[in-house]
Amino acid sequence: MTPHQDSNFKQIEQAFIAAIKDSADTTALKEVEVKYLGRSGQITELLKTLKEMSPEEKRSQGQQIQNLKTSFTTAYELRERTLLREEIETKLRAEFFDLTYSEIAPARPLDHGSKHPLSILQKEVEEIFAEMGFEIADGPEVESEYYNFEALNIPSPHPARHTQDTFFLDHPTDPKHGHLLLRTHTSPVQIRTMEKYGAPLRVITPGRVFRYEATDATHDSTFNQVEGLLIDEGVGLAHLKGIMSEFLKRFFHDEITVRFRPGYFPFVEPGIEMDMLWKRGKEQKWLEVMGAGMVHPNVLRAGGLDPEQYQGWAFGFGLTRMALLRYAIDDIRLIHSNDLRFLKQF
Ligand code: PHE
User: Fold this and answer.
1) Is the pTM here over 0.85, yes or no?
2) Is 247 in the pocket of ligand 1 (CB under 6 A)?
3) Residue to mutate, 164, 166, 187, 288, ligand 1, most ligand atoms under 8 Å from C-beta
4) Is the Cβ atom of 292 under 6 angstroms away from ligand 1?
5) Can you tell me whether residue 294 is helix, strand or coil?
6) Fewer CB in 10 Å around end: N or C, the chain?
7) How many angstroms is it from 293 CA to the middle of ligand 1?
8) What CA–CA distance (Å, rounded) separates 32 from 23?
9) Each residue of 151-207: pLDDT tens digit?
10) CATH of 117-343, one of 1.10.3720.10, 3.30.930.10, 2.60.120.200, 1.20.59.10
11) Integer Cα distance of 335 and 333 in angstroms
12) Residue nearest to atom 9 of ligand 1 (CA)
């Protein structure tokens, strides 16, 4: 081996090491490989010369040329590994998609529903009366003339039938029950519960009622009432006043003054209107909150009870009206408007 050849190998090695190092990506690196180890690459050419060498030359140079090839391969593989890792990382970084927070598609905010004011208040009313020993009863919204009027001492023709304008259904029923209709009050459930459970009885019946009338800020054709019925021996109006005062106190979280005035409802005798003293700041006024009275003997009889043995009182109030008072809502039509801006406040 001549010093010339020796330094020649060194130069070649330095050159390819530099070229390998400078390869910015695997494509550039491949080009370096072709340049040295391709069919007519520099190292390949050197390897070809081995064949023409004398055994003497082969011994001195063969190993060096082999070493050159090994040196290249080692440097090449090392660089290739680094470049591949870098390329994968770049690719991953470019394709990274943050699923927890993305500018492109931010997660939709969770939208919670809220309870309807009527549902909230109905539950409160039910709880207060349940604590006082009342059960919750239910009745159909599509009623018959019999339950809505006849059994409640409103025979036909009776002027009181016209005080509650009725939606009649175009559906004939048997002579006893008359036409089907949308109940105009929850009072028909008085008859249904008496028929079903007899006496003594203590129930409230929350439910929807319907009136065929023009709507405005204080009237809607659909609203909610709560009926109450208590039947036992030796029952009087004093019980009613006591129970209702207690109810209003718990419902409005305040001491509420009530007053009774005579009122007319065919299904009670005597009939009363109950008012409560409504205070807001300095302002105070009497508000009519419910109809009530002692259950009429004809109604007890229609429910299958003996008026000589049992007495009872009944009341009916508008849950919708209570909602307006409780939440200071100034237009009843908001209640069934399905307006989310309204509903989200509860
Ligand atoms: N049903 C009556 C109404 O809707 C209210 C009421 C119920 C009155 C019970 C007296 C007794 O106006």
Assistant:
1) no
2) no
3) 187
4) yes
5) strand
6) N
7) 9
8) 8
9) 999 988 777 676 668 999 988 778 888 889 999 999 999 999 999 999 999 999 999
10) 3.30.930.10
11) 5
12) 315
The residue assigned the tokens 């509860």 is 346
Ligand 1 centre distance from Cα of residue 123 (Å):
21
As to burial, measured by CB atoms within 10 angstroms (0-12 exposed, 13-18 middle, 19+ buried), residue 100 is exposed
Lowest mean pLDDT among 103-112, 206-215, 337-346: 103-112
Residue ranges covered by each domain of the chain: 3-94, 117-343
Task: Return the residue matching tokens 């004809």.
Answer: 298
d(CA 190, CA 344): 35
- Residue 225 CA: nearest ligand 1 atom is 4
State if residue 268 touches ligand 1 by the CB under 6 angstroms criterion.
Answer: yes
pLDDT digits (tens, 9 = 90+) for 109-143: 887 888 999 999 999 999 999 999 999 999 999 99
Residue 244 predicted with pLDDT over 50: yes
